[in-house]
Amino acid sequence: xxxxxxxxxxxxxxxxxxxxxxxxxxxxxxxxxxxxxxxxxxxxxxxxxxxxxxxxxxxxxxxxxxxxxxxxxxxxxxxxxxxxxxxxxxxxxxxxxxxxxxxxxxxxxxxxxxxxxxxxxxxxxxxxxxxxxxxxxxxxxxxxxxxxx
Length: 149
Ligand code: AMP
What we know:
This protein is of the alpha/beta class and about 150 residues long. Helices cover about 40% and strands about 25% of the residues. Adenosine monophosphate binds near residues 25 and 132.
């Protein structure tokens, strides 16, 4: 169990650590791998969200998933990617949380994950919570915990 005051103060700030869906770089499961490489390269992220046509979370696509597919016994062969779609290489093991947030769950999951996917009660994607944004909120809190409003 985490301290109630800490939990409440972090939740007051939860708007700050949610990056809303319209600001999250993503690809669609039906997109080509060529398109996904372009998006990953432009965004400079190593892993991004994959959505389906209903706006639901389909998976996560990492640059390493693409590079692994290019490797074969003789070395790197980009032709191994020909004709592939995002859904062929994405992972479907997605760390998901729901809003309203459980701070303890977020803190525990962010130890192992760089970001968590947020969905609403209909399982529709609403954004992500990243390690950086949560750390910023925790940093703010530990510097202001004794301030009286
Ligand atoms: P950070 O904690 O800011 O380093 O973000 C951790 C990871 O979250 C990044 O490496 C990306 O995979 C993902 N991420 C952060 N911000 C965004 C964004 N605006 N759109 C898509 N993915 C993001």
